[in-house]
Input
Amino acid sequence: MAPLLLLALGCAPVDSSTPDAGEDPSESSGPSDSTSASAEADPAACAAEAVRSPGTLTIGTDSPAYEPWFSKNDPTNGEGFESAVAYAVAEQLGFTGDAVQWTKVPFNSSYAPGEKKFDFDINQISITPERAEVVDFSDGYYQAAQAVIVLKGSAGEDVTSVAELQGLRLGAQTGTTSLTAIRDVIQPDTDPVVFKDTSAAKQALLNDQVDAILADLPTAFYITAVEIPKATIVGQFQPETGEQEEFGMLFEKGSPLVECVNQALTVLRDDGTLASIESRWLSDVVGVPELTP
Amino acid sequence: MAAWSPSPRQRERDAVRRRLQRRSATVATLATVVVLGLLAVVILTSPGWARVRETFFSWEDAKASFPEVIRAFGKNVLLFLLAEPLILVLGALVAVVRSTTAAALFPLRLLATFYTDLFRGVPTLLVVILAGFGIPALQLQGVTNDTFWLGLGALVLSYGAYVAEVFRAGIDSIHPSQVASADALGLSHGQAMRYVVLPQATRRVIPPLLNDFISLQKDTALLSSIFVFEALFAAQDYAAYNFNYTPIVVVAVLFVGLTIPLARFTDWMGRRMMRRERAGAR
Output
């Protein structure tokens, strides 16, 4: 257990300029040596042979496909973060928009073992060692940002920078990257309030026992949209510390396409495409500004 | 007159006695060494021991978590130091009210009985959660929503009921002749209670009170459920990040280390009171 953990820590992809570090520790197959060797390789050439049906890239996601990951429950429109990423990757792999086929895959069955009817699935699936035992993952295409949730009309609503958070009563759930972010990045004036679970955090926010709670952005979208409509996300930031949760594209175990997609992601990351897609769909469109330090 | 010296037979008896004592001491020592040694060997050589030691007795993790755990433990200590006097006052008050006989005080007696019945019957954790989540949800003006103070109030309410019953048992145990004597001396009912009954009753209930207070010290950990970051929660927080449960063992040691001196102190205090009460009589 300990060596695995160490490895996981060592591999925490905090620095996007070294994509090799994003390898999942429990994956024993080839990608780790191939990624470094293939910096100059052509993802399109790689993918031509690797897809299920030649000339078509089949991508899976759940239905309904939720905002802001998709738009209007239509993954084919290229709008929404994951749809945009999927088409950008497809382009790198040498597939035009017309050559991309979407297929519906329920979230819970996506990471079940066995044969898959898609080339890859993109559906906010977190890379975990348990899942990586039975399916393959690409490198992370999104590293969950920390979101600051406050009640509408409360003191915290005007916050624009991480430094401004220091004076607030902040809370987060124990054992999460959010709590680590408060302790290591924000370092507030008063000790953070630690919760046993998110439901306690939500109650404390409603009861004015904390000014703001932190959660990763995907969770925060759900909390503010569904659970506490009175709450709003005032901002997000990437804590450049510790181990963040990452979303990866999911493949059938042993799929040769993994390497091609990793090459494509490397290109997209290096030329800034991935970052601009993220800031467009997960910040500008949803109105969740990046907090300045 | 020559100095007394034991007879040869007496010396022989002494020698035999000493020999027997030595032998039983040797046997006891050997038996202890063998049993504990075997136990140690069985535990230390069992295949799971390395993992047990790594998970529960890791020195590195104990050291790494200690500053946070001891800081949080300060909250536990502060909680029961604040709660104990309040509980004593509340418990004594309720017990005295329940021991009154005046007809006009019947409503008070009724309330006191209702209070003890209610709070002894409800789980302490329930009271804590009700106070920590329920009261802030009311958004009452002028009422704190700091869960430390709300939790403290919950502990006082819950333990006050137990302590009231302990006090009442103590009061009931004072023989009626004591009250009659106080009456004969011209003391009012209240004075008799204050100067004759309560001092004796308190002395008698010190051991059961200690039980309740040790229990209270441990129950300060219940406040972790209303996000008071006390020692157990701090240890769990460490465990959640590092998958190591040593800090929880550390907290256990801290709690035990706190209760043992308290037990000795109360023993000593009880003995001293007993000595004074009996005034040299055996």
